[in-house]
UniProtKB/TrEMBL annotation:
<keyword id="KW-0472">Membrane</keyword>
<dbReference type="InterPro" id="IPR036305">
    <property type="entry name" value="RGS_sf"/>
</dbReference>
<keyword id="KW-0966">Cell projection</keyword>
<keyword id="KW-1003">Cell membrane</keyword>
<dbReference type="GO" id="GO:0009968">
    <property type="term" value="P:negative regulation of signal transduction"/>
</dbReference>
<feature type="domain" description="RGS">
    <location>
        <begin position="51"/>
        <end position="167"/>
    </location>
</feature>
<dbReference type="GO" id="GO:0030425">
    <property type="term" value="C:dendrite"/>
</dbReference>
<keyword id="KW-0734">Signal transduction inhibitor</keyword>
<dbReference type="GO" id="GO:0043204">
    <property type="term" value="C:perikaryon"/>
</dbReference>
<keyword id="KW-0539">Nucleus</keyword>
<dbReference type="Pfam" id="PF00615">
    <property type="entry name" value="RGS"/>
</dbReference>
<dbReference type="InterPro" id="IPR016137">
    <property type="entry name" value="RGS"/>
</dbReference>
<protein>
    <recommendedName>
        <fullName>Regulator of G-protein signaling 8</fullName>
    </recommendedName>
</protein>
<dbReference type="GO" id="GO:0005634">
    <property type="term" value="C:nucleus"/>
</dbReference>
<dbReference type="GO" id="GO:0005886">
    <property type="term" value="C:plasma membrane"/>
</dbReference>
<dbReference type="InterPro" id="IPR034949">
    <property type="entry name" value="RGS_RGS8"/>
</dbReference>
<dbReference type="InterPro" id="IPR044926">
    <property type="entry name" value="RGS_subdomain_2"/>
</dbReference>
Amino acid sequence: IDHRNRGMRTRLGCLSHKSDSYNDFTAILPDKPNRALKRLSTEEATRWADSFDVLLSHKYGLAAFRAFLKTEFSEENLEFWLACEDFKKTRSAAKLAAKAQRIFEEFIDVQAPREVNIDFQTRELTRRNMQEPSLSCFDQAQGKVHSLMEKDSYPRFLRSKIYTDLLSQTQRRLS
């Protein structure tokens, strides 16, 4: 048993060490991180601190926030929010129910593989909404998850090594 615990500690140590070193932004920035870093201005990265929605609306801000959530093992919140944003763009009535069911089973249902943290009332309202799926059937759940990320994860992201290192990289380029 002790041997297995040591192995687990070693693996967890590697994980926590890896999540702390962000001089290499290949894990954070999509497609060609070096070019992305050159394009990302300090002003843009600083603006992410203005509001959570500014962060979510910026391609690289979203990527950095996703990387941060992965280090906290809570990326399902962002993935659910993004799935809802995509779902709202569904124009085909035929695809609507199937897409809604997929989102519900992946994120909302009890014991879902990537279950988001929402209260019982919201989960039940969403379950009832699934009887006749519409573009707004996830609105309340999505709002709760957005609020949770904004109040909890977003402030921690702004203090994280990921964000501060990214800002340093953009500022270093200017000097």
